[in-house]
Automatic annotation (TrEMBL):
Residues 12-162 form the Uracil-DNA glycosylase-like domain. Its EC number is 3.2.2.15. It comes from Lachnospira intestinalis. CDD domains: UDG-F6_HDG. Keywords: Glycosidase, Hydrolase. It comes from the Bacteria. SUPFAM superfamilies: Uracil-DNA glycosylase-like. GO terms for molecular function: DNA-deoxyinosine glycosylase activity. It is an enzyme of class 3 (hydrolase). Pfam families: UDG. The keyword Hydrolase applies. The keyword Nuclease does not apply. This is DNA-deoxyinosine glycosylase.
Amino acid sequence: MEEYVNINHTFEPVYDKNTRILILGTFPSVKSREYGFYYGHPQNRFWRVLSGITDSQLPVSIQEKKEFLLSHHIGIWDVIKSCTIKGSDDSSIKNVTVNDFTKILNKSDIRAIFANGNKAYDLYEKYVFETVGIKAVKLPSTSPANARWNLEKLETAYSEMLKYIAD
């Protein structure tokens, strides 16, 4: 049985001055922490969804993923800076400290914020929305645990963000 651990987020946000949308997860999974970057679980569909809706080649390396995001005006980060969690189980999250979004919002061109899954959305609404003032759009989780949503349905839902990143 997995134990609760107190853990700090170690990934920097990915964004630049041209970033138009920000996609927020909850907190990196065990597999993502082992991989060293966002959505590192091989079964997570995040990268396949984004490459699909942008008609782009699937980025493989961490550097390719960063370049892919920035070239499409997409930023990513997580709501949580630190928490107590069992493994990768979002439902076990407690003792939440949230990230400070001021830097990203002041140094980019954010037009919309999207939450990858219910938990990211709920945490954003509870801890961040009031200080940021930008309503998040809830999207279905790309996690392999969200088996109800196949790749095609995820791409349809995520394609909503395209109107914010178009030139």
